[in-house]
UniProtKB/TrEMBL annotation:
Keyword Glycoprotein among UniProt keywords: no
The protein, known as: Protein O-mannose kinase
Record keywords: ATP-binding, Endoplasmic reticulum, Kinase, Membrane, Nucleotide-binding, Signal-anchor, Transferase, Transmembrane, Transmembrane helix
Cross-referenced Gene3D superfamilies: Transferase(Phosphotransferase) domain 1
Gene Ontology CC annotations of this record: endoplasmic reticulum membrane
Catalytic activity: 3-O-[beta-D-GalNAc-(1->3)-beta-D-GlcNAc-(1->4)-alpha-D-Man]-L-Thr-[protein] + ATP = 3-O-[beta-D-GalNAc-(1->3)-beta-D-GlcNAc-(1->4)-(O-6-P-alpha-D-Man)]-Thr-[protein] + ADP + H(+)
EC number(s) from the headed UniProt entry: 2.7.1.183
One term of GO molecular function: protein kinase activity
Membrane topology per record: Single-pass type II membrane protein
Species for this entry: Carlito syrichta (Philippine tarsier)
Amino acid sequence: VFLSEWKEHKVAVSRLTSLEMKDDFLHGLQMLKSLQSKHVVTLLGYCEEDSTILTEYHPLGSLGNLGETLNFLKYRNVNTWQHRLRLAMDYVSIINFLHHSPLGTLVMCDSSELPKALSQYLLTSNFSIVANDLDALPLVNRSSGMLVKCGHRELHGDFVAPEQLWPYGEDVPFRDDLMPPYDEKIDIWKIPDISSFLLGHVEGSDMVRFHLFDIHKACKSQTPAERPTAQDILDTYQKVLHSLRDTVTSQTREML
């Protein structure tokens, strides 16, 4: 990925350097073309013949850089629980958009650990989030029995959903063909961890976590079908934002 200029604007130029990744690259391009919206980085142009994609440049970079970015003095005014909660709402809005996309229910598969998940998104200059890396978005269609598997290797750790872990124990060697598929509820499992990262450790963020405890606990249900939808989570975040904002406002008035 290169920083370049086009028509006096800074742009990001993505070039394929490894031919074995061509299918992923073309899938990512197709997703960019099909999913253009406020939730996805703006596609400015592309050339399939030489595997080049031109997208809008966001100088603040990956969402994983959020902590370092907000440490800068000039961003201190947005380093608040309110702004951070709005970022979490942005993130859940993107997941909700992918689960109800024009193409059907898409799963954000390139997210087997927190840093990898955060690297799929960019922080914009007005402090919102856009999805950027869309080369691993398989389609779920429960009615036709079409489920997904994120890659062909064994996954480990608490960040991935339980159904993404090898279910047959250490005595049985991993085999991709024996690994059961799953649906979009794997994205829901990861929301509490990503939201906690976005909330950070500023004044008021633990208060927000307390109010989100029940919905986040539901996200971590071992049974995928019992987890809430992204829209359910978004509705809860919205209520918590309004409720806490009103509380803070009334407390400020009382102090005055």
